[in-house]
Amino acid sequence: EAHLGRIDTKAGLLLGLTGAAATAVPVLTVGAHLPIVGTVAAGLAVLAFTIAATLLALAIRPRLVMRSRRPHGFMRYATATVNEILFDVAVAQYPRGQAARLADLSAAAVGKYRQIRIAVDLALAGLGWVAVTALTALITAN
Length: 142
Description:
Helix 1 packs antiparallel against helix 2, helix 1 packs parallel to helix 4 and helix 2 runs antiparallel to helix 4.
């Protein structure tokens, strides 16, 4: 569970950076009189950053139901009776219960990491397009 929390923290930081980049690129390029290459590059940068931010938002979005199709953590007990909670706690102490919990947590971590990995790749592509935009702006300014 602590590992999932660290994943969410990383994704949240990246979400802020990609969201800011997706917003900054059009603001900085408005009125820049870029050539078509620069305009297309700026558009591709915004697209890459926007998709990256979307994936990161999905990565940190709470997962109320896990791979086992059961709620996870504290939410699991929102509608449970005292006897159901006691049974669940007792089962969790045995290897099968621990294995099921580990499978759920691992599946959640892999899903989040997949989304973060793709988002980082897109953010890097967005930075590349920002570089192309900047170069075209410099070339046309001279």
